[in-house]
Amino acid sequence: MIPSIAKLPRISLGNYPTPLTEAHHLSAALGGPRIIIKRDDLTGLALGGNKCRKLEFVMAARKLDMEAYLVLFKGVHPETQGNLLLHDILDSKVRIIELDLSELLGGTIMVKMNALADELSQQGRHPLVIPAGAHTPIGTTGWVNAADEIWQQLQAQNIDARYLVVTNGSSGTQAGLELGVKYLKLPLKVIGISVFNKAANAINEVVNMANETAKFLNLDLAFTPDEITVYDDYIGEGYGITTDGCIQAIRLVAQTEGIFLDPVYTGKAMAGFIDLIHKGKFTAKDTVVFIHSGGIPALFAYDKEIAK
Ligand SMILES: Cc1ncc(COP(=O)(O)O)c(C=O)c1O
Fold it and tell me: pTM above the 0.85 mark?
């Protein structure tokens, strides 16, 4: 482990390393590269996903016997299904606010979280505000570590991969992977598929968060935007709105590999990956690791869009 990470306080929340699954049938169906799926849907905490690595460094309320308050913006599916059903079971205190996208990008949700934290402080509580996606250098550290973990697995299994394909939402997961790859000088190129931001904004956010995290970890390196790749062609009408490509990708991966992707993040990332294969960006000679960052519970909230 990177020495400055090994020194940090951490709680164990997930089962690591998560498996690498060889996706032979998916690969054959696409006539494309060798595809390895990094199974962070199988972390073992709260139905999996990429937040588990972040929360090992940030903390996770229920596992530490604390209360969780959530400030969420109203998405496409506000009914008690998918993740909202899980929060109901966890007895999370949920506040849903109606925002348009510009307010979301402008940080309104942070203002609302800080206001709630003030309210709780006045009641004598001691709140910790965790930004959406645990998007902080501490949270991102979990994914710096993941780059190290993936590389060790690839070496041990003699897999000659050259690419990591990852979903980009708030950019932290990609930023962590980029930092790990650069610091450890790994021969891997990270490709982000955005589900939210335009490419230029996502790239700037990867650069900012990777640089902030490098400082936090005392790693002497810095990123510039030209080093980072993010595609924004697969967002469709917007965040949380499914696309035909996303639904086809979910079905294809389920039917070839028995692995479920989600309709908001990994389904769109896989749709992008498939399109890039069709466009010749990846060929049969390449080996690509696709990061399955979880999100599966949302499938059940999107039944109307997905079911035939
Ligand atoms: C399932 C899933 N995949 C990917 C992401 C994107 O991660 P990040 O926000 O670190 O870019 C998220 C974020 O919410 C997610 O829930």
Answer: yes
Q: How many helices (H) and strands (E) does the chain have?
A: 12, 8
Which parts of the chain sit beneath pLDDT 70? 101-102, 104-106
Six-digit token pair at 83? 């993740």
Minimum CA distance residue for ligand 1 atom 16: 295
Residues in the chain: 308
What per-residue confidence (pLDDT) applies to 106?
Answer: 66
128: left (phi over 0), alpha (psi -120 to 50) or beta: beta
**Which atom, in ligand 1's list, is nearest to the CA of 192?**
11
Contact at 8 Å (CB) between 159 and 27?
Answer: no
Shortest CA distance to 176 belongs to which of 209, 127, 203, 200?
209
Name which residue sits closest to atom 12 of ligand 1, judged by CA: 169
Phi-psi region at 49: left, alpha or beta (left = phi > 0; alpha = psi -120 to 50): left
Atom of ligand 1 nearest to the CA of 262: 1
